[in-house]
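Internal ticket #5521
Category: modeling
Description: The requester needs a full-assembly model to guide mutagenesis choices. All entity lines are attached below as received. Residue total reported by intake: 680.
Assigned to: D.W.
Attached entities:
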Amino acid sequence: MSERLTVTVERPDQIVAILRPDGYINASGGEEIAKEAYVLLGDGVVNLLLDLERTRIVNSIGISILIEILEKVLDQKGRLAFCRLTPTIEKTFQIMGLAQYARLFPAVDPALAWLRGETE
Amino acid sequence: MPTGDVPRAHALLAAIQPAGGDEGLLLKILPALLTGAGIERGIAVNAAHPDRPFSLGLSLAPSALHRLVGELAQSAETAEPANIRETLRLAARFFGDGPPLSDPRVIPITAADETLALLVLPEPPADPAGFASVVAHAASILAWVRMAEKVREADFELKYRVWELESLYDVGLSIAGTLDLESLADEILMKSVSLLNARSGALIVRRRDVDGGFYIKEFGSAFPDPGPGVGIPEGVCVANRREERPAFLAAATAEKLLTVPIRSEGEPIGVLVVGDKENRAGGIDDFNQADARILSLFGNQAAIALDNARLHREALEKERMEREIELAASIQRTIIPASLPEVEGLDICGANRPTRQVGGDFYDVFPLPGGRVAFALADVSGKGVPAALLVSTVHACLHVLFDVGRDDLPFVVARVNEHLLRFSSSRKFATLFLGIFEPSSRVMRYVNAGHNPGILLSGESFELLGPTGIPVGMFPNAVHKEEVRTLRASDLLVLYSDGITEAQDGGETEFGMERLTGLVLGGRELSPAGLTGEIFGAVDEFTRGVAQYDDQTVLVARIG
């Protein structure tokens, strides 16, 4: 009985979507996120924000799934951003290379602005 | 005989974009291969992922396809002739649902002597030589993608190792930077679970404040308190089966466990445990020795954190005790008189040596109306601040009562007794020798509330002035009798605390009354100050530097 991750999705417009995972980003947690992300990509929403305010732990399988999501987003010429990461997760993303192609933000608004192309 | 379109097959292969990994790459390659072979149906099996076959032109249910191709892949794993023949036999079964097979073929797609995939065709390709070039082209694409995947995996592995090292480094920094055990336990646990791809974990440490109880920080699943009497595992335990797990973790709900001990001063005081190492497919893998090494590093970090926290607690406690001792000493310093008042007809000297632990001795001299003088020597129970406060209470009581003119000693002692019973905590009491001397008549009245006998030396004889009642603060309505002595000029009165008579040498022999009385008799010609110094000197010579645990107080008066 592991800590199960849940994901809520918010679509403020047709350009971006916000995914809010709550729990451990591991194999099952990562798949939950991927499932929602691929539905959005299938709907043509290619700019995704993962708000990690309610995530305090991630493992390497979860990271590999996030990398797969990132690759699919980039395949579709989209953007992927993360916001409100704990310092530990932010450092992990830096080390594991996620921050190389996705952007990390301290808050939601600047992340949305970047995803909408309003900032660089 | 089918007709293959080799140039078009090469064109199809050249158009493939292998970006994004090789998943589904065979699905992109298979049409080109069939075009090159001039055949409409076929199966491709990736040797790296035999569980994910691809087919074209077949209408088999996915489950049947999966099962049969799994068998194909297994039998053709080494692409040896015997295996190829077996593969063909299975292929015949596989294609049996369609048109009859005249000459089925299994074609290994190889690069650098490695079988990357298998292509299963129901009949030979139309142009074997041309088709061979198409297969070689397909093999080069697969090999390139495979190499890219290996590089990616190596890159990920390298980054993972950096992550591992950084995590250990971060925990080390946290240990150095904080003594908040709760947050450190959380950090160590989260990092252990995360780096070992575990689903759950716990830090379980014996609590020092609860006999047999454990502090448990858990994540992901339940790690119940093992209960009293269950031994803490002393070594690393890789328990991939339930029967391998230690009794300490018998009730943990995870299927597979990895446990390392946490030691303090060489003794196991708890464990760091993770449960259920997950894999990418969603299953659970076995823990291995490499996992055990990583977890042991975190276990060592946890041990250091716990030791640091314990040492810090002990340092704080020591500091608190030293502050208390200093406070008690300062209270006592304000009570012990810096100098005694000049009294006509009486030469008096007192001295007190508090021990390191600060006890509760005090003495004082109170001038009274009519040239009389009251004197007191008391010893309160306990040590430190509580004892010092009790001294302060007794001292204040005496001052107030004498200041308001009460000189009826049994009454004064009774009031002190009541006051202590009412306002002091239980089991606090004091012994007290309290007297009043009237120089004009040389009459001394005294009450001895459970204190050591005073020594009254008169001429060649001496008398011990023993207790006339019990210590104050013990029982209500205690009766303290007053005694009266008429003294003569040159008589000597010596009061002292038990810190003098009970001072011990290295063999735990006490200084004793006999030595003290002998000393007083031998020093009868000395001044009170001289005799006081003589007594302390004799005690020091007797104890020879052995630490003493009780205050030493002496009050000597010579009648003028």
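Resolution: model delivered.
Comment from assignee: The first strand of chain B starts at residue 42 and ends at 46.
Ticket closed.
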